[in-house]
Amino acid sequence: MVQRIAVIPGDGIGPEVARIGVRLLESLELPLRFEWFDFGAERYLRDGTMLPAGFMETLRKDFAAIYFGAVGDPRLPGNEHAKGILLAMRFELDLYINLRPCILLDDRLSPLKGKARADLRITMFRENTEGLYAGIGGVFKKGTADEVAQEVDVNTRKGVERICEAAFAWAEQRGLKRVCMADKANVMVFGHGLWRRVFAEVSARHPAIEAKAMYVDAVAMDLIRQPEAYEIIVTNNLFGDILTDLGAALTGGLGIAASGNIHPGRISLFEPVHGSAPDIAGKGKANPLAMALSGALMLEHLGYALEAQRVQSAVERQIRQGAHTADLVPLLGGAAATTEQVGAELLACLSSTK
Length: 354
Ligand SMILES: NC(=O)c1ccc[n+]([C@@H]2O[C@H](COP(=O)([O-])OP(=O)(O)OC[C@H]3O[C@@H](n4cnc5c(N)ncnc54)[C@H](O)[C@@H]3O)[C@@H](O)[C@H]2O)c1
What we know:
Layout: E1 3-10, H1 14-26, E2 32-36, H2 41-47, H3 55-62, E3 65-70, H4 80-92, E4 97-103, E5 121-127, E6 137-140, E7 148-151, H5 157-173, E8 178-183, H6 191-204, E9 210-215, H7 216-225, E10 232-235, H8 237-250, E11 258-262, E12 268-272, H9 289-301, H10 305-321, H11 329-332, H12 339-351
Parallel strand pairs: 1-2, 1-3, 3-12, 5-10, 8-9, 8-10
Antiparallel strand pairs: 4-5, 4-11, 6-7, 11-12
Helix pairs in contact: 1-9, 1-12, 5-6, 7-8, 9-10, 10-12
Nicotinamide-adenine-dinucleotide is lined by residues 13, 70-72, 79, 86, 254-255, 271, 274-280, 286-287, 290, 325, 327.
C-alpha cells in the first residue's frame, strides 16, 4: 500500500533542504507518495492561512508522516505563524516524543578532545507536549514595580509514563543497555518527584535495562567529560531542549542534527533541528544533511529500517569522502560547497550502497 507523506518545506532554507531530502528518499523507489504543501510565512502573509480548516483531520486520516523543513521569517518577528503550523501539529497530533539522535558520524566532527565515534552514540527522548512549554501562566501587575510572572510546569503521570516507556522500548528494540533520566528532583520536588517515581515504576517493567535517575546539571557536565557513559537520555521538555542542543554541538552542529516528533503508531513529523536560517537563505549555503537524516528517522518510523540505515550510511560516506557546506568547513576543512553539490554527492553515495 502506498503511504502518503505530507511535505511542508516552510520558510527560509526549509525549501532548499526539503528538495534534497525528498529527492534522496524518492530515489529509494519505496511505495511512498510525497505531496507538497505551501504552508509558511509567504502563504500566511498572502491570505492569512496557517493550516487550513480540516487539514489536521486530513493528516490524521490520510497521511503516514510529515516531512517538515523549517518555519521562521524576519517579516514575522513574533513568529505567530509557527505557533499555528508547527506547534499546532506537535500539540494537536499529540507528538509526545521528541527524538533526537546525538550520534557522532565522523571522528572529526567532535569538538571533544580524544572522543571518537564509539564514544558518542546517544539518543535523547525529550517530552514534547508538557512541562514549562504548556503555555500556562500569566503576569499580574504588568509593568509595575510589583509585577509577578508565573509559568506553570505541567507534569502528568500519563505524560511522564509514556515518554519513559518509549525510551525503554527503544533500548530494548535496539539491544541497548542503559537509560538515564535527567531531572532536578532535589529542588523541583513535586513535578520532578513524579518523574522519579514513574521512572522507577517503568524501569521495574524493564529489568534487563540499567536505569539511572540523575540531576540534569550532572548530566550536562558528564556529556562533556564522559559521553560514552550514556546510551539513552529521557527528560522533560525544558531540559530536553537544552541537552539536545548540547548533544548537537558535540556531534557536528545544527547542519547535521535531525529530529522526530513522534506518536508511536500514528502520523508523526520529522524535521531538521535547525530553523529557517534567514542569514543564509537563498544563497545555496544550507547543509542538507540534517534534512536527509530526518528522512532516515522517518523511514524507520514507517517500517523501512534497512533503507533508513542506508540513508545514514550514505550521509556518513558523503561526510567522509565529499565536499562540505560552509558550516562544516571549520571542522572538516576544504572549500565550501553548495547545498546542491552536497545533495548530488549524497544521492551518488546512496545509489552506490544498493
Ligand atoms: N523547527 C523550526 O522550524 C525552527 C527551529 C529553530 C528556529 N526556528 C526559527 O528560525 C528562524 C531563525 O532562527 P535562528 O537563527 O535562531 O536558528 P537557525 O537554526 O535558523 O540558525 C542558527 C544558525 O545556524 C545556521 N544554520 C542553521 N541551519 C543550517 C544549515 N542547515 N546549514 C548551515 N547552517 C545552518 C544559521 O545560518 C544560523 O547562523 C527564527 O524565526 C526561529 O524562530 C524554527
